[in-house]
Amino acid sequence: MDADKEILKIMFIGLDNSGKTSILYALENAYNKIENIKPTLSFETKRLFNILGLPIYVWDLGGQKKFQQKYLEHREYFENTNQIFWVIDIQDDVRFIDSIEYFLKIWELLEKDRESLPQITFFLHKSDPDIRNNDRIRKNVKTMKNLFADLPQKFKFYETTIFDREELLFVFSKSLRNVFPKSNVLNDYLNEFLEKTDSLSIILLDYNILALSEASKDDESLNICHVCGPYFANMAQKLRSYKMKVPDFIQAQMDGWLFFKTLKVSNQIFYLVTFNNNPDAVKVINEYIKPFTESLTNVIKYIL
Predict the structure, then answer these.
(1) Given CB 3.0 to 4.6 Å as the disulfide criterion, which of 48, 210, 215, 228 pairs with 191?
(2) Considering only CA atoms, which of 69, 47, 50, 72 is closest in space to residue 60?
(3) The pTM is what?
(4) CATH assignment, 8-177
């Protein structure tokens, strides 16, 4: 994506009843709307989030066959698209081939302009907590990945469910960072923080609990930040909604130390979460956190 572009255009595509619209409601935290969902007719667009001042516009494409053909006949639907999330109902193995055939037709259409190919991420959706580890779902996940194994381009696959909003936000924001040029500037600062404090992982969340940037030395410590960060952020926002005092800085011991810092930048709220297992972590972080957050705040102001 060019830095000059004023918006990010995101598409959710897949067969009907794959769960595209419910994913969008879950990302918005509008669970009250899910029970009244009706099939999407043609397509719907909405402004979902702002990321560092850059608005995200989402296109929700209805998956009925009559609409599939309409999209295939009008490539202009896909112009200037930055990211496609392809949604597959991982419980509906009867329709796996239909979903793949539809994808291949869209892929053939997109490949006609290789210079502007959007990034594509697959949601293996409806992998709900109570069935995720059963034999049928594990077999379906393996089957779906194998069906795509022969394609010349490798894609990212994530199991998702509306019953874990934090997981959806994590996958959504991780995918968007690859088409979001401003994240590179933030990445440099977070990596510098790791080196100077000998920390293992750090993430920067915005008010919507989207991970704007991250850096880590191993996956396990990064997962700690991704699990605990949203928990503390939700707690802070709940306190704020009740007009109660929100802790500016939290230290929690858990086989190491987790640090949670609230940043206020140009009337916007951000959260910094870092994990460190150094015995002297508290002393080191407390010495460095103030100058680092001041510097990071200036960078965010510049980006905004």
Answers:
(1) 215
(2) 47
(3) 0.89
(4) 3.40.50.300
Superfamily covering domain 183-303: Dynein light chain 2a, cytoplasmic (3.30.450.30)
- The parts of the chain modelled with pLDDT lower than 50 are 1-4
Helix axes 96-110, 135-147, angle to 10 degrees: 30
Our measurement of the distance from residue 169's CA atom to the centroid of its chain's CA atoms, rounded to an integer in Å, reads: 4
User: Tokens 């916007």 appear where?
Assistant: 268
Residue 98's identity, in one-letter code, is: D
Three-point CA angle 60, 1, 176, nearest 5°: 50
CA 216 to chain centre: 17
Q: How far apart are the first and last CA of the chain?
A: 18
Other Cβ atoms closer than 10 A to 154: 8
Closest listed residue to residue 24, CA positions, set 63, 58, 71, 64 = 58
- Where do the H-state alpha helices sit in 148-218? 165-177, 183-197
Distance CA 98, CA 34 (A): 25
Domain extents in the chain? 8-177, 183-303
Task: Calculate Rg over the CA atoms of the chain.
Answer: 20
* β-strands 268-276, 54-61 pairing: unpaired
Nearest 5 degrees, angle CA 114-CA 90-CA 67?
55
Pull the structure tokens for residue 162.
């509306």
φ, ψ of residue 300 in degrees (nearest 5): -65, -40
Question: Tens of pLDDT along 137-171?
Answer: 999 999 999 988 877 788 999 999 999 999 999 99
